[in-house]
TrEMBL record:
Every ILCR1 Ig-like domain range: 219-321
Keyword terms, alphabetized: Signal
InterPro entries, sorted: Ig_ILCR1
Biological source species: Diploscapter pachys
The name this protein goes by in its record: ILCR1 Ig-like domain-containing protein
Domain of life: Eukaryota
Length: 331
């Protein structure tokens, strides 16, 4: 009997895996905060009401249920308060369809928490969320998202100087395009916003190894295929996608580790010629009834120049799994 583990997680990073596309893509992360006590959801294809001069006096303007229409007002003056540290974050992956290089992007920002109770009263209105607008110069179109908070962010008391928010989107996953990004408070007023121009990310030339390739390889995320466990032999077959040839990665370090003892049970360096569509290796006769995990990263052969900047390549890990004990039944 055999069974397959189909999921994997990024070691030290949390990502939303989306394939590259042309044009706007309705693919956003469902979570949008690093706070363990602040629930946050993302509303896609967010529609906005025209600006109104009516002041917000009570919670009648809050988003309720599945309503996705914003109420904005010029009556709110947010003063010096605004989202800070607005930036984009990119990682690279192998496109499983073309084996070419693809991008995964996210928009990130922070909100400084108000630790002085008297200063919190200076906020003209509770912050109920953030509106994210992303404009593509190539597509000449704008996509809008609302990150809706479970409760006002300025009402939180926690031992942090700020909370980070993020939206992970595949619409940023295009090479050779420029984006303008705006993040504003919800409800909107005449200020309380921050903007950023994301410069074009150029696609590297194929088979040209050097510093540019190393910088990209440092942010390349390996991708597992199915991990197949054979119960009778206790073998574990690992499948993964090779790096695009443009990254000059030809060696991969593959580990299987016991999570019970933290010991590395087996290690292999998998070599690639550049012609493979998938790479495989089988770990033989692994221990039963132990929590196991597979780890994978681009290898750094000691006799060669590092393929990643500062020799720091990203490691991915599989979900934990256990090979069950064989049960012999007598007739």
């Amino acid at each position: 009997m055999r069974w397959t583990i189909c999921h994997s997680n990024l070691f030290f990073l949390l990502l939303l895996y989306c394939g590259p596309n042309r044009g706007w893509v309705d693919a956003a992360s469902r979570s949008c905060s690093n706070s363990p006590i602040l629930l946050c959801e993302i509303i896609d294809d967010f529609a906005e009401d025209p600006l109104t001069d009516a002041p917000i006096e009570d919670e009648a303007y809050l988003i309720a249920g599945n309503q996705t229409t914003a109420t904005t007002t010029t009556a709110i003056d947010w003063g010096s308060f605004k989202p800070i540290d607005l930036r984009t974050f990119f990682l690279y992956k192998t496109d499983p369809r073309t084996l070419d290089l693809s991008l995964e992007g996210s928009v990130r920002w922070r909100f400084p928490l108000v630790t002085n109770p008297q200063a919190s009263h200076a906020m003209p209105h509770p912050i109920l969320g953030f509106i994210v607008r992303i404009n593509s110069t190539a597509l000449d179109a704008t996509k809008t998202y609302l990150t809706r908070l479970e409760r006002p962010v300025d009402s939180i008391s926690m031992n942090l100087s700020s909370i980070e928010f993020f939206v992970e989107l595949s619409l940023l996953s295009l090479f050779n395009e420029t984006y303008s990004i705006e993040v504003s408070f919800y409800p909107e007023g005449k200020n309380g916003r921050n903007t950023l121009i994301r410069e074009t990310i150029k696609k590297p030339e194929k088979d040209v190894c050097g510093k540019e390739t190393q910088d990209i390889a440092k942010s390349w995320v390996p991708s597992f295929g199915p991990l197949t466990v054979y119960e009778i032999t206790a073998d574990v077959e690992v499948e993964f996608l090779p790096a695009p040839t443009s990254l000059c990665i030809t060696h991969y370090s593959l580990y299987i580790q016991s999570m019970s003892s933290s010991h590395i049970l087996s290690y292999v360096m998998v070599n690639a010629t550049g012609n493979e569509t998938k790479l495989r290796h089988t770990f033989k006769s692994m221990p039963r009834e132990e929590k196991l995990m597979i780890k994978l990263l681009a290898a750094e052969p000691s006799e060669e120049q590092c393929v990643c900047t500062h020799c720091r390549c990203i490691t991915v890990k599989s979900n934990e799994f256990t090979i069950p004990k064989m049960v012999h039944r007598s007739n």
